[in-house]
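Working notes for the structural subgroup meeting. M.R. asked for a predicted model of this chain before we commit to crystallization trials. I am recording the input and output together here so anyone reviewing the notebook later can reproduce the run.

Input as submitted:
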Amino acid sequence: MEISLLRNLSFLICFSSGVLWGQSKIPEIPTSEVGFPLPYHSPVSGTFAEIRNHNLHLGSDFKSYGLNGHSILATFDGYIEEISYSKTGYGLSLNLYSPKYKLKSKYAHLHSFGGSLYDLELLRRAILLMGDPAGFQLKLPQGMFSAKKGTPLGKTGESGSGISHLHLEFRSEKGIINPLYFPEIHQKDTTPPTILSMYLEGDNLETPILLTAKEKSKGRYELFTDTGELFESISLTGKVRIRMSGYDFIRSRNKNNVYGMDLFVNGKPIFSRNFDFLAYEDGSKKHQFYDINRSSLAPPVYFYHIYEQSKNFKEEGYSLDLDGYKPKEKLPLEVSLRDATGNKSSVFFTVTHDKNETENTRFSKKQKTGNKFSSNDGKVSVDLSKAEVSGEGSLLITEVNEKEIPFKIPAGLPLKGKIYQLDTKKMSWKGEGNGEWTFSYAPSIKESLYFYDTSIGKFQSISQKRKSNGFSFKLTKLGYVMVLSDETPPTIFPMTSLARYIELPEVRNHCFEERFYVLGDTGSGFRTSVELTIDGQSFPYEYDPDRRAIRVLIPKSLQKERPYLLLEVKAFDFAGNVSEPFVDLISTHGWIEELQASCPVME
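Returned structure, recorded in token form:
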């Protein structure tokens, strides 16, 4: 690629992707003209509209099995419209555009453009050499780099965010299309979605009901109460809200988002949603689709609203208004989750319209001042004044006995004080709630606030600050809070889930031996700074947040003088505990065969 070409293109560098498309949301492209983006039929590891930290996942992720360097293929006939690079987000990416169907596919987290369009890879290198190495965004002239369906366009990598995988998006004029909409990509699985539980709220219910789902036969689930009784019917009145938790398996162990959901009353659909398309403005409004106080990113837990939720988050939606039905009328309900292939899973129960009101004693006992809620003893409070609150209900903060909690406190983390459960009635919130826990003493460095997330059934980190008389904290989820003392040191182990290399031979750097060591801690959390030496001398490393591991690059030139290298690592946690030294004896035998003349040499 001549430098003059780069100069001619410099005026096209921009920071937007304004393109004139047709008016339809999903272009009517023949399914035979949309192909798979990889040379092997890789399982989906992340699906469309999944929960992310600040927005929804607007594409599909495909497994690369921990290896960078697989070819990416053109999903249809078109030309390369744009290339970009950033150290976060999409990383190295390209956009393939079809002028015939006004459809764009975006490939992200690439290693390079090392495909059939060799000049495109030369252009990438030239831009990074001559421009800002931190990133670029470049619009390309129409037809400069044309490609037929199936043409290799680049190599998979892990640039931007996340470990090795391919992220693929399809974009039309108005928004983003679920890649599983296209039959060649939707995996043709035969397993219906898994239903985990159903959350039921009614105007006459003293507290919401969480029901556990168990599969009776393929695609058909039964509901059970917390005492193990079969749930088949209930009397309710007024507005009813139904939320369903579940996931979909698609040829892998990944718990993926479902494709759609339905609510039937007397066999007639009264609510249906498909995750086949999202308008651009809805990409950041995950509260429309999920109970965000009960849903989770890692591990994935999807708690779906089976109703339309207000975009402005001011009013809570509802699934069914029983005031529109006759008194004592019995309504058979079916709630379903669907996948992209059409497999469906359902639960069935009957609602009787009955205005037998009950006194809301538990709700009336909770202390509330504005949007500030507190426990009965006043020790724990949560202020939601700066969060967006939907619904007219309350945040319940209830003291519970250790024998009543549905989980075990980990060994080595003794309980200090009380346990409080946080739950909601007829409300949810978006954003961070500001919490306070007041003590009669100053907590020690080993004492920390711990949060058990009931939606995922695990302890999760919680943003907190130690004070002279307790803790302040930030709250976005529901579960149990408690104070534990960290008496357990952190751990460090080699990463055994990776192959020796994470790059295929054609993209591998043969000058270095790459090693990963995973950090872990059951208590206050590990520090990302470690004490690492090779043969007794301090040696550089970097922390990989996606793998929660330290990455060590060892020059293979060391084999000239040392047949073995002794690597030692110590890890530290925030409670002052120190791990036992981890020792790795590394043999340099065999490195000489791969040593290149251009590799750096250690003096």
